[in-house]
Amino acid sequence: MPLTNKHKLNPTKWVILHADYLFNYTISRVSNHDIAKDLVQDTFFAALKAKDNFQGKASERTWLISILKRKIIDYYRKINSAKGKAEVKMSFYTDGDREGEWIEECVPTDWNNEVEKSIENDELGVALEECIEDLPEKYAMVFRMKTIQQFETEEICKELEITSSNLWVIIHRARTQLRKCMEENWFKN
Predict the structure, then answer these.
(1) pTM score, two decimals?
(2) Fold of the domain spanning 114-185
């Protein structure tokens, strides 16, 4: 017996139902409010243009997120191209399950003062961002996509037209260069 419960689109309620969710999803990947707002707006516009192609197999939000993911990838492609350069800022996680994911070693073990912790984390974030900016452009982009924004390996490879082994070589080289930079600029007190 075929399912007749296909999902339907309701574009008049997209902003009310999905804008905050899409914005939060985007801001965690681009770390710039204005760019995140633009990408969400572009997503809604593209969805309106493509609404006749919606087949109802996925929920409205899932469909919008799939469009948004393409917009984010296109954004990173654009800033990586020779046509447009843009400053990409990243957020650093200081608490919770994701703490320390972005660097593999030399994590301090004892923090006694919360104010000092906050100042030190801010300074560490600035030092790490400076080291990332010193990476070759492709290394920085792949490192951000895989390690910070947590794109899937297959998705990065497809979008950048590289093999998975090439991706892991780039990640390894980026981490090695970041470790050296951080040792020279942060840990050598």
Answers:
(1) 0.45
(2) Arc Repressor Mutant, subunit A (1.10.10)
